[in-house]
Every structure is written in structure tokens, then in C-alpha cells.
Design a protein that fits this description.
With about 425 residues, the chain is of the alpha/beta class. The protein is built from 15 helices and 18 strands.
Amino acid sequence: MKSLRIGIAGLGVVGSGVLDILVNHLERIERAGANLCVTGISARDQAKDRGVTHGPIDWYADPIELAVCDKIDVFVELIGGPEGVARHAVTAALESGKHVVTANKALLAKHGLELATLAEGAELSLCYEAAVAAGVPVIRSLRSGASACRINKLTAMLNGTCNYILSQMTHAGVSYEDALREAQQLGFAEADPSLDVGGDDAAQKLVILAMIAFDSTVEYGSFPVLGIENLTSNDIAAAGKLGYRIKLVAVAERNDDGYELRVHPALVDKHHSLAKADGADNYLIINADPLGQVSLAGPGAGQGATAAAIVADLIALSRGTGGPVFNTAAENLVTAKMLPSKTRPARFFLRLTLKDVPGAIAGISETLAEHGISIDSLIQPSVMATGDNSTNHDAMVVLATHVTTEAEMIQAANEIRQKPFALGEPSLIRIEDFS
């Protein structure tokens, strides 16, 4: 067991939680057999009351000065962002011989290979359990528990904000706008929620998981990402009538030709455990040989969960555990060959608003048939939710297809949209089937 001196840069909600555990709850650390001492802190405002009582700890106005000082052994970066001060401080810490613990998913998704190469070259640790799913130990499970396995597929819900919004729309029947507003009031969503609801937060986390799972580098921005902003109460209700719930899923899959990554809303069978994970929880399903299928679930955000994950990394460092930053040494990571998701077979949900005229359903069926798409089920809900600009003379048609490709489905939906009986934009969502 090593005694470690800790420097913390960034004393927001998470940083304050980490400081509180390390200063005021040392019995937890001691029970785990670790010896940790905070010797330096840095944040924008030294005078701000953060609700944490602590003794004399050196203050650094410049986080980079803290990162390189000789009074710390581990630099904890909680500043955030893929560039700027966060990147410079982490790089400086590694170059000056300091271990690094971070919760910065954006930094790792964009510069993970560079930082892993730097850390491993200096025989240092770069730990990041809190960067994905906060208190759910998904990183440790992939790097340790599943390290002897061939991981074939990861299916996950990685954004607590989106899961909370979709849960409220499903169970409370509220609109997307009202659910988002409530999430902001509760602190689940930022004032500018675009990173979360647009799917980018989940995509950054998926890059990190895929690099571990597939021993490969994955370029952020190299796969499709779709958020939940355009989902309506009608989508939620119609999916429910078909026996599904809508979730924002992140999928990374291996096959013989390469890898497929995608983030998007999906219909999930309402009886599946992933569909039942509500609120701000995260959920991860690992499919691997010879392990089989393993699921992990729990709080994916919040001060307590994220701070606990940071301290868990510090305890692991004190115990002397290490290894490659990802599952394989950075120098042995290969570039992932990305496959287009539009060519992969899948089933789809299609919701249409139509003029209530004869022949409309037949026109839809004919267009789908021209693209080799058959209908698995079709319903015509008698009442549409408000807020979709519908009138008493409109009709809603909802259908689920048999297996086709996304490319064919998009083309068919576009052709249906141009029919004289079609109103507005169709809602097209992939159905995520679990074997």
C-alpha cells in the first residue's frame, strides 16, 4: 500500500464531493486499506463556499501549477472539456511524473490514445472510472472482469438525463419540453442540455467503452449519433401500444468485417430489463465469449455516485493496481474499421400522420413493398396527443416492420412523406431486438 498525496483541480459539485470524502470521511478510505491525503486544490473562486469543511490545504490559482508541483503524487482533473486547461493540465501532470484520475469523458474520447501513450511510456496510471456511468463500475468490469473474454457487443443506456426525460414521458405522460424542464430543475440537465439530449454525451462514453472492448482506437465523430429532441408524446404512446418503450441506446458491435457503433433512440421490449431501467439510471449489457451476457445498472450521474468512483480509483492506485489505460497497451491498439449502420439488418417503427382519406393505408403498404419491406404489425390509435399540430380530420398510423435495412427504410419513409395523403414528417425509430 502506497501513501498518496492528492491534488484536486475543479471544485464543482463532483470535486466538492471528492474533497468531502477524502477530508471528512477517512474511515471509508482506511477500511479499504488505503492512505490518501489531499495536499493541493485548485478552482476558479477560492472564496466560494462549497459546503466542505477542511483543514489547511495549499491553494493553486493555476491548475497546471498544481499538476506539476512536487507536493502531489496524483492529479485529479475535474475541470471538464476536451481541450484548453483540462487537456493541458492532464498532459503536464503526466509529463511531470504524476498519476492522473479524471471524470472527463470528452477528453478521453478525443485524446485517449495520446494520453494513454504518454502515461504508459512513463509507467504511470491514467484512471477514469467516473467518466462512464459514474458509480456503476463499467470500466473496471471491462478492464478486469472481462479482460480474458472476446467482447462481441455492448448495448447501453449511458445518459441519465435522457433516461429521466423518457421515463417521465412514459410514466407521467408529460411532453418532451415539460420533462426536460423538470430535469433541469432537479439538476439532471444543464441550462444548455444539447450535449445530453443530442446524444453526444453518450457517444463520448461509447468511444471509451469500445476502445476497451475491442482493443482498437475509435475516432469520435466516425459513427451516427441521434438524440431525443424530436421525440413526441405520440411516439411514446404508440410504442407502448406495440409493447415497447423508447430509450436512448448506445451500441458497439463486432463482426467479421469490422465494427459498428451507433447512438440513437430505439424501441425496446417493455419486458426487457433495459426498458425497465428508469429515472437517471445507466445500464450496460456485455455480450462476450466465453463469459456470456452480463448486465450492470445503477446511478449514472450525481455528486455521490461520481465522487465515489473517483475515490475508488484513488484507492486502487494506493493499493498498487495498474495495467494498460485501455484493455491493451496503447502501442498495440489498432484502428477500428467502422461499418455503416445503414446496411445492417433491423426492424423499424414508423409513425405517420395522414389525411383521413380512402387508399392511404394501401399507399403505404405499396411503397414499403416496393422496397422489400413487410409489415409485422399496424395500429391506428384513435386519439393523438396534443402538440403534434393534428386536427380532427387527421389520422395516425403506426407500424412495425419485419427485418430490413436502414437505408431502404429511410428511402421508403421519404417516399411516403411525399404522397398527397401524408402530413408532416414521419417518425422513424429503430427497434432494438435482444437475442
